[in-house]
């Protein structure tokens, strides 16, 4: 995915970056006092001063993420949101500089934005996957095989151990980062034809779907006819034991019927024999109709 800013956008970004870098830095005590004014009194002027002084952190972070193919202006906007979140949560009583605290929020906001927009397919959802996404290129650059299109198994294992992730995750990320999203409407050749024209349709045809429905209806009718040959107690046992995904145990049915679980097993065996006899001339395998038969 590649986004190229137009010349007017580039000029506007440049003017903003220069203005941000000209903003004066704050002394430690001034920074803490502004943070207290905002936290305790909701002083928006104090908030503006605090955020304006550290907007340079946003520009610096955005420059480090510019190689992910997203507009730097958008990265700055997301970073500014992170900066505002940091200002809203900053506690000056912890004696930590605001710049240190805000840097984490700014980077986190930008990283989330990149993961949401780098590909139409969600790239990373866990902390380990995010770390892999943002560190894979750096670690690969350290490996002495620049001309190789893909990593060796040994090097994949090395990266996996370095980032504490599975080797299969490294292999998957390598494949993801080596390709880009492509439109299914993109032409394959000049003479016509899109990629979507070659996608197979794995769904059943209308004819096969109709046959399957009719077959299921017929099998259901056969099964109900076979069940009608059983006594009420035998029907209860078969329905509870064989026609449910979470069938009752022999012990549970025994308590309900007031008999031992061995007696339930005998009744079940006899009922299955009757069903097999009723279905023997209609289906090849009774197990196609009964769960765990």
In short, what is this structure?
By secondary structure, the chain is mainly α. The protein folds into three domains: 1-118, Up-down Bundle (Four Helix Bundle (Hemerythrin (Met), subunit A)); 124-183; 206-288, Winged helix-like DNA-binding domain superfamily/Winged helix DNA-binding domain (Arc Repressor Mutant, subunit A, Orthogonal Bundle).
Summarize the biggest pleated sheet.
Answer: none
Oligomer: single chain
Shape: elongated
CATH-defined fold name of the largest domain: Four Helix Bundle (Hemerythrin (Met), subunit A)
Radius of gyration, whole Å: 33 Å
Description:
It is a single chain. This protein has 13 helices and no strands. It has helices at 7-22, 28-41, 44-53, 55-64, 72-89, 98-117, 127-142, 153-163, 167-177, 206-227, 232-241, 250-257, 261-279. Helix 12 (250-257) crosses helix 13 (261-279). The radius of gyration is 33 Å and the shape is elongated. The mean pLDDT is 82.
């Amino acid at each position: 995915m590649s986004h190229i800013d137009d010349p007017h956008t580039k000029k506007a970004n440049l003017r903003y970056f220069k203005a941000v870098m000209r903003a004066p830095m704050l002394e430690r005590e001034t920074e803490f006092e502004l943070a207290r004014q905002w936290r305790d009194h909701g002083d928006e002027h104090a908030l503006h001063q605090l955020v304006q002084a550290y907007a340079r952190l946003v520009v610096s972070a955005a420059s480090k993420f510019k190689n992910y193919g997203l507009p730097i202006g958008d990265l700055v906007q997301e970073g500014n949101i992170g900066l505002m979140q940091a200002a809203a949560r900053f506690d000056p009583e912890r004696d930590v500089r605001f710049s240190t605290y805000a840097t984490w929020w700014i980077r986190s906001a930008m990283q989330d934005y990149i993961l949401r927009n780098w590909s139409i397919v969600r790239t990373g959802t866990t902390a380990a996957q995010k770390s892999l996404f943002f560190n894979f290129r750096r670690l690969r650059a350290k490996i002495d095989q620049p001309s190789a299109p893909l990593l060796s198994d040994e090097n994949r294992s090395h990266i996996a151990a370095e980032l504490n992730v599975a080797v299969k995750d490294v292999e998957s990320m390598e494949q993801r980062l080596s390709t880009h999203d492509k439109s299914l409407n993109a032409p394959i050749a000049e003479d016509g034809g899109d990629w979507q024209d070659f996608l197979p349709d794995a769904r059943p045809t209308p004819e096969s779907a109709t046959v399957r429905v009719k077959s299921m209806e017929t099998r259901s009718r056969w099964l109900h006819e076979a069940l009608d040959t059983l006594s009420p107690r035998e029907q209860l046992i078969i329905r509870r034991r064989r026609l449910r995904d979470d069938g009752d145990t022999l012990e549970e049915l025994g308590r309900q019927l007031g008999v031992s679980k061995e007696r339930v097993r005998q009744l079940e065996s006899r009922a299955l024999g009757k069903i097999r006899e009723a279905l023997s001339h209609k289906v090849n395998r009774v197990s196609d109709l009964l769960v765990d038969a």
